[in-house]
């Protein structure tokens, strides 16, 4: 005869088991909510300045972007938007991979591809923001934006 484990008394107070798991998923969930709100402000601010202020969409060209990126404020704005969007999106896709990739090896390779894409896009985007020069040295003066001194 086998003995079944004793059933706990339902009137006993609940005693939480010591967990060895981390709170990484909780922090990821909180980050997604907070970064989503911040991204809404950043993206709609970006769209408003680019599409509504001044001449609107007709003014967007090399000179417009060059003029914006001569300001540390707009460099920082676009950098924060890039980094938050990339981390937010990568965390979301990581969650989808964890939910839908059934085999461990498939999950591993998908995450390697995801993290590689994250690093490449984030590094290249950051380099573009900080190394962009709206005033190339040998460019004809009539092609330079107004922020450049010929």
TrEMBL record:
Q: Which UniProt keywords apply?
A: Heme, Iron, Membrane, Metal-binding, Transmembrane, Transmembrane helix
Compartments where found: Membrane
Q: Which CDD domains does the entry mention?
A: SQR_TypeA_SdhD_like
Instruction: Quote a single Gene Ontology cellular component term.
Output: membrane
Q: What Gene Ontology molecular-function terms does this entry list?
A: metal ion binding
UniProt superkingdom: Bacteria
Membrane-crossing segments per the record: 26-49, 69-87, 108-132
Q: Name the InterPro entries for this protein.
A: SQR/QFR_C/D, SuccDH_FuR_B_TM-su
What this protein is called in its record is Succinate dehydrogenase hydrophobic membrane anchor subunit
- Lineage, please? Bacteria, Bacillati, Actinomycetota, Actinomycetes, Micrococcales
């Amino acid at each position: 005869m086998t003995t079944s484990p004793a059933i706990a008394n339902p009137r006993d107070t609940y005693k939480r088991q010591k967990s060895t798991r981390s709170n990484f998923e909780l922090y990821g969930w909180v980050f997604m909510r907070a970064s989503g709100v911040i991204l809404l402000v950043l993206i709609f601010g970006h769209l408003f300045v680019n599409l509504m202020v001044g001449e609107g969409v007709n003014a967007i060209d090399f000179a417009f972007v060059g003029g914006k990126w001569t300001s540390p404020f707009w460099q920082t704005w676009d950098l924060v938007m890039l980094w938050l969007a990339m981390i937010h999106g990568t965390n979301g896709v990581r969650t989808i991979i964890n939910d839908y990739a059934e085999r461990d090896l498939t999950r591993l390779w998908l995450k390697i591809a995801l993290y590689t894409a994250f690093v490449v896009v984030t590094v290249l985007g950051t380099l573009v923001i900080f190394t962009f020069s709206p005033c190339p040295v040998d460019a004809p003066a009539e092609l330079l934006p107004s922020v450049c001194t010929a």
